[in-house]
Amino acid sequence: xxxxxxxxxxxxxxxxxxxxxxxxxxxxxxxxxxxxxxxxxxxxxxxxxxxxxxxxxxxxxxxxxxxxxxxxxxxxxxxxxxxxxxxxxxxxxxxxxxxxxxxxxxxxxxxxxxxxxxxxxxxxxxxxxxxxxxxxxxxx
Length: 140
Fold this sequence. Notes:
- It is built from six helices and two strands; from the N terminus they run H-H-E-E-H-H-H-H.
- It is mainly alpha-helical and 140 residues long.
- Strands 1-2 form a two-stranded antiparallel sheet.
- The chain starts with 5 loop residues before the first helix and ends with a helix.
């Protein structure tokens, strides 16, 4: 979603998800996103990068370059990998301020939280919180 504003990237996700009527198809789409996520270097799969609060193991790494945050991630569960891939596609390459100012409401518009199991929904919230903390740390 390179070259798009944050809002445009979010609208693109909403549009992509609207192509599917059934949640089973939306899960398949998430799984495909996860399969296309570049692998995270094994050396970065450390305890510090592990997102707390996720039932499956999710690692998130980031770097700041030219005032923008770039995220890489991996997970040992395919749907969770799709969810983190979706978040990275929208938020990687954004400024810390853009991320901090965002309400992540596009996720409600695609119905993601309501259609995840309670443990996966908690994991999603933990992923969002970790991305927000990364942005806040850069602003401070």
